[in-house]
């Protein structure tokens, strides 16, 4: 049975790096790491293209060389824990700058970054470039982890009041859970 990844994501951000952070989440009762699935990274790239977050030129270029899922996972885990502590380390920033230099970017007519190399280096360059821009425009401060105890997703909280990555999925689920817990206790 093939399950498309689309069914897995409770929330899709406009930012590639946030969608990348969110490639791990709890589904039903088990933690699912999409990078560990067979063709997980390729499926994710196709999904990002379908959502219009990556364009076909970017995806074509990235697919020119193999992407190392282990390296990408290490990058994701480093940033997930940095964001959870909400203290980005200087080292982490230096590594972002370094990654953008390993596959220098050019820009298409819509100013989308196209890496000069594909594979791991290309993907790290695109993600790092976007993260440096996001940091400079204050997006990092608005990055929040979903309040649901069974969700791993990060999202951008523009209003400062949002609790859940998705009201439809996590908000409703959490409300139902609290309602049920209250009933049990009364
Ligand atoms: Zn959530």
From TrEMBL:
Ranges where the Zinc finger CGNR domain occurs: 143-183
Recorded superkingdom: Bacteria
Pfam families in alphabetical order: zf-CGNR
Alphabetized InterPro entries for the sequence: ABATE (IPR010852), ABATE_dom_sf (IPR023286), Znf_CGNR (IPR021005)
Protein name: Zinc finger CGNR domain-containing protein
Upper lineage: Bacteria, Bacillati, Bacillota, Bacilli, Bacillales
């Amino acid at each position: 049975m093939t399950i498309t990844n689309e069914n897995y994501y409770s929330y899709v951000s406009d930012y590639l790096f946030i969608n990348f952070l969110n490639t791990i989440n709890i589904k039903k009762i088990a933690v699912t790491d999409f990078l560990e699935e067979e063709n997980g990274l390729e499926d994710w790239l196709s999904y990002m293209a379908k959502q219009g977050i990556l364009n076909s030129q970017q995806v074509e270029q990235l697919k020119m060389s193999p992407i190392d899922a282990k390296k990408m996972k290490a990058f994701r885990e480093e940033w997930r824990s940095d964001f959870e502590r909400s203290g980005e380390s200087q080292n982490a920033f230096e590594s972002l700058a370094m990654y953008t230099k390993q596959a220098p970017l050019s820009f298409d007519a819509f100013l989308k970054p196209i890496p000069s190399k594909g594979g791991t280096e290309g993907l790290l360059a695109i993600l790092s470039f976007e993260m440096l821009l996001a940091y400079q425009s204050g997006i990092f401060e608005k990055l929040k982890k979903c309040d649901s105890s069974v969700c791993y997703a990060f999202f951008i909280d523009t209003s400062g009041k949002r609790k859940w990555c998705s009201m439809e999925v996590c908000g409703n689920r959490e409300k139902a859970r609290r309602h049920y817990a209250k009933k049990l206790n009364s």
